[in-house]
Amino acid sequence: FAAAGDAGAGFTTSEALTPEGDVKSYCNFYEFGTDKGDPAKYASEMTTDPWSIEVDGMVNKPGKLNLEDIMGFELEERIYRFRCVEAWSMVVPWIGFPLYKLLEKFEPTSDAKYVEFRTLYRRSEMRGTRSFTNIIDWPYREGLRMDEAMHPLTLMAVGMYGKTLPNQNGAPIRLVVPWKYGFKSIKSVVQIRLTSKQPDTSWQALAASEYGFYSNVNPEVDHPRWSQRYERRLPSTLLNPNRIPTQKFNGYEEQVGALYAGMDLSKYY
Amino acid sequence: MLWLLLFLAALAPFLWLVFLAQGGGLGPDPARELMHFTGEWALYLLAFTLCLTPMRRLGLWSRALRYRRMMGMFAFFYGCLHLLGFAQLYVGWSGALIAEELLERPYILAGFLGWLFMLPLAITSTRGWQRRLGRKWVSLHKLVYPAAIAGVVHVFWQARSDIGEALLYVAIVTVLLAYRLVLRLRTESQRRAQTA
Predict the structure, then answer these.
(1) pLDDT the model gives residue A4
(2) Residue A153, domain extent
(3) ipTM of the complex in this document
(4) Which of A122, A184, A224, B87 is the most exposed place for a label (fewest CB within 10 A)?
């Protein structure tokens, strides 16, 4: 894979990688169940080929991307910190391409202010969506502001650890936004819509006081039910829980801080 | 004999946990696994302890009360592991962080209260204390009810999107406490009828 353009731009961290097996076995992908091990067990039930992403909304050229089109983008490796809102984190070598390259193909209009994403919702292949005690309103939805979406760090990943993306990690294509909590990095994307209004997201709809639209990693703004000041860098052990202080914007402040200049981050959490 | 069997059954989860921890079976985030595991077993055993009295009253198990203390102590044991795990794995024995968690996060306060309600019960569980306290002992040990309620609140407050498991705990503890409430209301109305 081609090296990322500018080594100094935060595209790659030199921190120790989380072992591949851990990234594949410890996942949040509620479409397959809420237990961390459920996605690894059940995500193989999801068909990922054929696959297509519909791109519409405020674009000059709405259309579809098929799997071949997706794989046609020039791929590069990005080693990112990945911080979950549940206060654990990993370091993952993703393979993919910047989202802006995808968006540019469809020519966003000047009215496009936000990007809305949707995950596949196929009840027959996603047992978690069939759980009657689940209170998420499927399909899973996420969103970014246009400038966040166009930022060069924002990645569409199709692989990790030099291989194709496993189903439980969001095959065949997922978003990775390294300075935001993990749930923003929506998996198995089937729809991208450009909008003029801020889109609703699944977690916001569920508990707006706990999960904001921005959800930037921020040790100064706690989740109402737990502290965000520290994280457990996985893998951890019982004798050494590997607690490390959480960095603002997950350590990408230099790259993305300007996007939020003048914003009260405790209000726009 | 049954005593030994129950003792081993209640100890088995702990041994299993040690086995898993030794062999890396707790996965990449053992802190979380350990916390879930010990918390769940504290609740299971507390619920089981609360089942014993109704079982005897309903004539299902005449000797049920013999095992109440042991099961209660095991519930407390898993509760202690849970609390120690929190201190070591989640807040790293930082007094400031512990205080902040307790003050700012109601679900943690609920869990801690649950443990705190069980503490005097564990201390006074010996025959000596039972004798010394007499009737007060019975009143004191009613703290097991708020302990169970606090435990369930602790779980429910943490549920994120799938509330199934939390609802199950609520249902079980509600049934067990409602049984006692109904019984009590009945004896009281009988007493009133007699004195009238």
Answers:
(1) 43
(2) 7-260
(3) 0.84
(4) A224
